[in-house]
Amino acid sequence: MNYVKKLVFVILCTFLLAACAEKDNSNASNTGDKSTTESGAASSKNELVIAVNENFISMDPHNTGDTNSNSVQETMLEGLLGFDADGQIIKVLADDYSISEDALVYTFKLKEGVTFHDGEPFNAEAVKANIERIMNDESLRLYSRGFSLISNVEILGDYEIKVTLKEPYGPMITRFGVAKMISPKMIKDNLADIPKKPVGTGPYKFVEWVQGDHLTIENFDGYWGGGERVSKITYKPVPENGSRVAMLKAGDAQVIYPVPSQNIDELSKSKDVEVNKVPSTIAHYVSLNTYKKPLNDIKVRQAFNYAVDKDAYIKVVNAGLGLPLDSIIPSKTVYYKQQKMYEHNIEKAKELLAEAGYPDGFDIEIWGNTNSDTMKGMQFIQQQLGQIGVKVEIKSMEEGTLSDEIYGAQTPDDAKLQMWYVSWSAYASDITNATKPLFHSVSFPPNGANTAYYNNTEADQLMDEANSISDVDRQAELYEKLQEIVYQDTPWIFLGVDEVVYGVRSNVSGVLVNPTGGLDVKNAKVE
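Below the sequence we write its predicted structure tokens.
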């Protein structure tokens, strides 16, 4: 919470009695609205209602692809490791861990005295059952994200376990943070129920899930971590933006996520509501095909970066929500190093184009999907490059067609792509996923997302070495150099980084959203 919001909060506390009186009056004027009455009662009972924008897909933590489902799971299920408010790795069910120098062996010492919600003990046997479930089931999402590389899981003691990989995999430590532990009894006897009503070790336990209407959890009295928190939380999927906002204003929901950009100013003026913005790990950029003319000339690519006003991009395209992308990764990603940005300079851009042999510009295509925000982004790029004589033709395609056009190319010679308006998001703790798929020469389509066909031997070597060691100081050196090289080579037009926005009632504290968009309410309180 920044200084201004703290000040606002203090003022709100000063007028708490008056505010409560107003709320009572508001409820009295809506006595015909049953949900309002119930939610007001829920708040007074130390309970929360949280309205989110989409339905939940699954409660299986080993097979989850959507952020909303994962946010609910975070309250009930815990991993050996987890993530702090900035998205960085922390110890949770692991008391300690070590990684071998060759990044192949991971050893965990486990917390003692932890039990699952069904009374099963948390120990090395439970961890082994969870890891082996993922590494042996190809249908699970986590299988292909590092766990397929595990060769062996060995129990060293009741509370110590060793995991060995077939080959080095830098992001593996992040994968252990994503892999939440499920009761071994459930894995053995009741596998089919995991996606519907999971059993973990977290501060909340599952109560009920009515598809499309609500999902409810309640405080787990036997939680090993102790602490104070609200006794019950009800999540409600409310896709319609206006309805979600109305629920927050009326007190029918104490938290909504996300806040629609068009309602930010309105809600910010309310004394009963706080609107919070968090920098994310979602980077927006235009991929430039560095393999073919005219984008194979670095002066042309740098000219594009000077020609585009990043602040205007955020204001016009992103409703003012975001920050300029001042490296090849967002600032919330581990090992981030800020670079000297390409400031908006039309004359400099024209000079570079002329030096490259294009004093009068040229014609070029930009590709993107049919999403209205994407269209707005491409039109912005079209207008900006038009100022230096570059005529941009917009080609929007349905997502499947676009993917086929881009990833159907088997070699760089086959690629028809010139520019692609797109975004990328990685875990804040996982710089490998934020770099190798995008900039390594082994990641050209169809094998990866290096759609700029960026090919730099030194950059490849830096990524390869960083991915094969566990020395964090050396990794920091390697990734700092990588960011300098790639940002200077400009395989992208570097645009912006999203901010995520959520709203809470002023009497609610302890609600956070992490850089990947996950909602954390494990320590939420109603005052």
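The first strand starts at residue 47 and ends at 52.
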